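Recap slide: histidine kinase, sequence and predicted structure.
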Amino acid sequence: MRRCAIALFGQRARLRWLHLILGGALFMPYWLVGTIALGAFLDSPGMFGGSVAVQFGAYAIGLPLAAVTALFPLARPMSVAVARALCGIPADRLADGPARGRDAKARTAGWFTLHVGAGALISGASLALPPFAVSLAALPLWPALRESEVGRYWGLDRPWMLWAALPAGLLMLLALAATAAATGALLARQALRLLGPSPADRLAAAERRAAEAESRNRLARELHDSVGHALSAVTLQAGAARRVLDTGDAADLEFVREALTAIEETTRRTVGELDGVLGLLRRGEEVEEGVGPGLDALEALVRGAGPRVALTVDGALGPVPEVLSREAYRIVQEGLTNAARHAGGTPVTVRLDARTEELEITMENPLPERPPVARPHGGRGLRGVGERARLLGGTAVAGPVDGVWRLAVRIPR
């Protein structure tokens, strides 16, 4: 009994009833047009004074008109929003955005027609039936109503019919609630089929997810390269400065000063980059293509990596495209981070050749006496270098060659 009462009068049933009444309100303009059209041919006395046949004729004319208007782009977003709010349908089960394609538009028109058509019937019954049912149920307790013309017309002066009026009125109200609940449940089921995502919608959603994943991966690469390099460079410079101070040689104080200056420049630059990337993350935006330094900041990067890093540039870096300049900077940054992490203190040579149609980046450092400790799941630095090169149509090769570790990257300009 309790489950039946919840099904008929619970919150979900009430919201779906409201959804049907809203559909009936939306159908009123179409029904009015149908009434005027029939009245012009049948000489009907008015929109509310015609016969039942005229009223249902106007209803039949209004349905195709509603289907036509549902072909407009805003029809599906509005229908989906209302269905999610009032029909109790999970948000991810319905499509987003305007309907695209003939099938999606046809299903949207079918849904809108079903909504306003069923809503018109339920709304009409909700307006007309309750007053009649309440009056009927009140007959045994209302002598004046029994003696009225309506009571004599229905023959309610007979005792057995009089007392049957009370349960009959209550059954009418119960039947109305049951019909509204069943119709609301039917609309909720049909919403999944008619307003659900089409293959084109699923493809668009997959493309959006792929774009979001690429944006997150790009953000992760930016943070990894910037912060990882800064920590490695600061650690290397601080360690070198500490060793010089331990020796107590006053002649090497200039080296300590240079190391501290490099630490200051590296941390300041990294904090600025970190603020920019995290600002995008807080706003929920994608990482823009122009975010991050380029090859014009390469000398500062090398200077912050320490005195054992030698930079050689062949050709002019100014004409290098902005995207390639930024990605090349990140590649050099990651190469320096990799050298500092696995072979800290050894000389590193960086060569850039921009004289041809390809930008060539070569980085070398002697192999350490002990092999570096491998991470449990592998590092992401060289993998990120390869991803950056491949995205621009280039190649990246890293590994030991003739006693040195070499990173060679070639990217077309």
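The first helix runs from residue 2 to 9.
The CA atoms of residues 137 and 167 lie 7 Å apart.
(End of recap.)
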